[in-house]
Amino acid sequence: MKRIKLFLAAIIVAAGFVSCSDNNNDDDIIIEVNPLEGYNMLTKLTANTHSIEIYSEQDQFTIGYNELFFRIKDDAADTYISNAEVSWMPVMHMTEMQHSCPKSSVGVTDDTSVYSGYVVFQMPGNDTEYWEMTFDYSIDGTSYSLTEKIDVLAPVNDKRRVTVFTGSDDVRYVLAMMPLDPQVAVNDFSAMLFKMESMMSFPNVADYAIMIDPRMPSMGNHSSPNNVDLSYDATSQMYNGKLSLTMTGYWKINLKVMDDDDTLLKGEDVTDENEASSLFFEIEF
Question: Signal peptide span per the entry (predicted)?
Fold first, then answer.
C-alpha cells in the first residue's frame, strides 16, 4: 500500500515588490495544499454545516478491504477540522435484516486534519439493498452525527478477494485478502481474519493459521514453489506469508484456516480427486 505524504501548507515568499511609494515589502503568501492530492474522492457527505470528504487509492467503495481517508470541513468557515473525536459505523440494509462489517477504529494521520481507517465490505449493494455510513464526531465538546447512503460495488475484475464462511466451530468468519499488485515472483501476501460476534460486531481474530495452495486451473491445475503459509502478526493484526506466482494468468488461491488448537475450521487439501478448496481467493494478472 502506498504511504501518503501529508503536507500542512506550501509557503511561497514573494520578495522585492515595489509599491507606488517605491518602498520594498516582502509578502508571505500561504497556499493551502490538499494533503490527499493524488487520491480519489469517493464521496462527500454533508450535514450539520459540515462536509466529510472520503478518499481512497481506489476509485470506488468495493467489496473486500478498503483503506479510507477523510477530512471534515467546516463549510461556513471554509476550513478543515483537526483532532476531532470520530467514530464510524457502516451498515448494510437488507430486505429482512441489517448488519455491519469488519472495520478499524478511526485514527489521525501526521496531518491532524486527515483521518484514516479501513472497512471490509462483505457484499455489494443493489437496487433494494444498500450500505449506509454513519460518522459520529465531536468538535470542541459539541457532538454531531451524519448518516448517508454509499455505493459499494463488486470489483471491476469480479475476482474473489473476501469470503464469508461458517467454521467447524459454528462461528461465522470474514476473511479478506489485502491489496496486492501481483508479479511473476514470490510476492508478499497478507490477509485479515474476523469473526462475527453479532450483527454489528466483527473483531479481529489472532493467532490462527491460514494455509495457501495457489493453482492455475487452466494449466493442469499446477501449483508453484516457495509459498509460505500465513501466520499472525500482532503489530499489523494481519496474517502474512509468501505467494509464488510463476506466470501471468488466472490463479485460484486455495485456503485452509486452522484455529489456535490446530483444528481445521474450513477448507480442504487440493488432490487429484479434489481440484479446489471450498475456501479460496482469486487473482488474475
Answer: 1-20
Cα separation of 66 and 137, whole Å? Answer: 21
Q: Which three cell numbers stand for residue 103?
A: 472495520
167 and 267 share one domain: yes
Q: Could you tell me if 91 and 116 lie in one domain? A: yes
The residue count of the chain comes to 285
Domain count, the chain: 3
Q: What is d(CA 124, CA 221) in angstroms, rounded to the nearest whole number?
A: 30
CA distances from 160 to 7, 62, 143, 164, 251 (A): 36, 11, 39, 11, 11
The answer to pTM > 0.90 is: no
pLDDT in tens, 136-161: 999 999 999 999 999 999 988 889 99
Tell me the pairing of strands 185-195 and 98-99.
Answer: unpaired
Would you say 67 and 118 are in contact if contact means Cβ atoms under 8 Å apart?
A: yes
CATH number at residue 82: 2.60.40.10
**138 and 202 fall within a common domain:** no
* Range of the structural domain that residue 18 is part of: 2-31
Tell whether the torsion through CA atoms of 215, 216, 217 and 223 is positive or negative: negative
Q: Say if residue 186 is in the same domain as residue 275.
A: yes
Task: State residue 214's pLDDT score.
Answer: 98
pLDDT tens string 78-131:
999 999 999 999 999 999 999 999 999 999 999 999 999 999 999 999 999 999
